[in-house]
Each structure stands twice: as C-alpha cells, then as structure tokens.
Amino acid sequence: MKIRINEHFGSIKESYLFSDIARRVGAYSAAHPEQKIIRLGIGDVTLPLTPSVIAAMHRAVDEMAAADSFRGYAPEAGYDFLRQAIAGYYRRMGVSLRPEEIFVSDGAKSDIGNFVDILGDNEILIPDPVYPVYVDSNLMSGRRVTYLEADARNGFLPMPTGLPERAYVIYLCSPNNPTGAVYSAAQLGEWIAFAQRTGSLILFDSAYESYISGDYPHSVYAVPGARECVVEFCSLSKTAGFTGTRCGWTVLPQELEAGGMKLGSLWLRRQSTKFNGVPYVVQRAAEAAVSPQGHAEAMEHVGYYMENARILADFLQEKNIWFTGGKNSPYLWLRCPGEMGSWEFFDYLLEHAQIVGTPGEGFGKCGEGYFRLTAFGRREATVEAVARLRNLL
Ligand code: PLP
Prior knowledge:
single chain, alpha/beta, Aspartate Aminotransferase, domain 1, Aspartate Aminotransferase, domain 2, seven-stranded mixed sheet, 12 helices, globular, binds pyridoxal-5'-phosphate
C-alpha cells in the first residue's frame, strides 16, 4: 500500500515483557511438565465480583429485558446515578466534587491513553519505572518524554526539586505500579505547588487508592490546590474486581483551564466524538460497587490481597531484602538478591522455585536490578510461594 502510517509507532519499544515471560514460562513447563508453577507476576485480580455488584447486575439485566426499562446508548460521560454515586464515594473520603466533574469510562487505561488527544505538544515528565501506558501513549502521538528517575535513594518517589521551572504535563501514580510506593500529602503538596508555579498539569493515577491503609491521600483532591492543576484517573478494576467488567472514571474539576478552554469541556468533546459510553448494566454494577455496602464488600477482598502482601513483605523483611510497597499497595518491588539482574533473577526463581514474577526493567530503565511480586494470587499459592522462597534465598 502507498498510504502513510503513524511513524511515531516506530519509536515505541515493542512490549516484549509479557510475551518474553510467557515464552520462558512455556519453555520451562514443556521441559518440566510435572512442576507446579506459581504466578506472582500477574496484575489481575483473582477474587470474584461481590454480592452487591452481582445483585445490581442481575437487576439491570432484567431491566434490559423489558421494553419500558430497556436502555440504549448511555450518556458519554456516564449516567447521572453513577456520577452522583461516585461523588458520594469521594464525599465519604472527605473530598467534595460535583457530579459533572466526573467522567465515567470503561477504565483508567483508556482514559489515560486517550488523554493525549486533548493536549498539545508539551514537555512530558514521567517517572521511571512506571505503568507503560503513560510513556507509550505519548510516544505514539509524537510527544517528547523526559523521565523522572526513581530509585532507592528517593524511595521510588521522584520529587520536583531541581527541575527547570517551566510548564510540563506530569504523570504521577500513587500507590504506584510497579513499585508500590505511595506519596504523602506533603509530597503531593510539593508537586501541586510546583505545578501552580510553572503552569503545569498533573495527571494523577489513583487506580490503587483502596489499598492505602496508612495516612496517605486516597484522592489527590484531598490536598489543597489540586483542583487548579490536577486531573485524577480512577478505576474499579483493582478496588472491586472490575478488570473484566470495565468501569473507571476521570475527574476534571471546573477550575482546570488552559488556552482559554475548560479541560472538562475538551474531554467531553473528545469522549462524545470517539466513545459511546459504558453499558447500562456495568454502570449499575459500578453504582453498587461505590455504595457504602458494595465498598465494604470490596474492602474485604482488598483485605484478602493485603494479607497476601503482608505474608510476602514479612518474608522479605526476614531475609533483609530491600523492598518498597506491600503496605499500601498490592505490589512489592524488591531489589534482586545477590546483585542479580532482573531477568537473571526471573530465570533463577523459575528454575529453582517455579515462581513467576515480573522483571523490573520491563517498567523502565531504572527498574533494572529490581523485581515485582503481586499480592493478587490466591492465599494457598502465596503461602506456598513463600515456603519455596524460604528454601531458596
Ligand atoms: N493505572 C495503573 C497504574 C494500572 O496498574 C492499571 C492496571 O493495571 C490501570 C491504570 C488500568 O486500569 P483499568 O483496568 O481501569 O484500565
């Protein structure tokens, strides 16, 4: 063909990470079919949807079966009942948002990836290591990315100190995937002050907020000044097991304005052009998930995963292995023992303990020498993994 393609796709690294993992695990299983492999690399949940959510979905399915309660296209920004329910969820954490500032979607990945559509050619700051969607969505649209190096010295929480004072689009994720590190209100306050001084915009990913148990903000809007310079992305994937059900939202406070335009209006324009809304049944499920009862049920599942995290964290502590995460996050990010490289440690664990984790360098250059374990496995598997690790390390 003679058409021109988007040449910026050439600047994205092929994501070999999960295919490389699958290939190595496949080769190992083929050679050792008798061995039981434990997967602590997945970022997907393993517990089912909770009773409130399932009951709401059943009711909504019945409504779809009758002509007078059937729903067709949903509003692009979400049904009012869900926007109100999400505003109620924020209110219970002490944050006041108007329902019209909440834009419902099929998950945080789409919103984060699509957000570049409404922004021009800015300088982009992205922590390294990080959830790869921030980097790839910017490279795909030809944006320049500057990395904020995260390492053991800054606790994997890069700060603005020393950055040239100019306007950026800044991605922050707290609690972080992959490092599990979480920003305090004071640290977020520094980022917000920097953004206000420089006219920058912060894109804040709070997909793991429900894993916070310590004194850290669950929403960036709990920190003064955030309404003027931060967009927040959130998701029910990890909170309420919606990874396959698909629902999340993006918050654009009325105060957000650039180039004489409200960012909320731009986002609505973008969504109504390219997105046709989340299914009614899913929005009713999401309404149940953010209700006090649904959230209490979801938090039991979060508690289950966090007990897995505690089991893994206790083991790492016992072995004096340096790590972040595991306390306010389902991820544990550890320094590979014995100075091993990420892939070297991956192979070592697979070969000697039949455990699969995720090599840190898959999340960025600064991830080299680190390794991610997740708490999303079943309890028996997590306990068995620790028993095997105890024999090995
Ligand atoms: N943000 C982070 C940091 C994630 O780790 C994930 C999923 O793994 C997402 C966003 C995407 O969530 P969703 O399932 O809502 O698209």
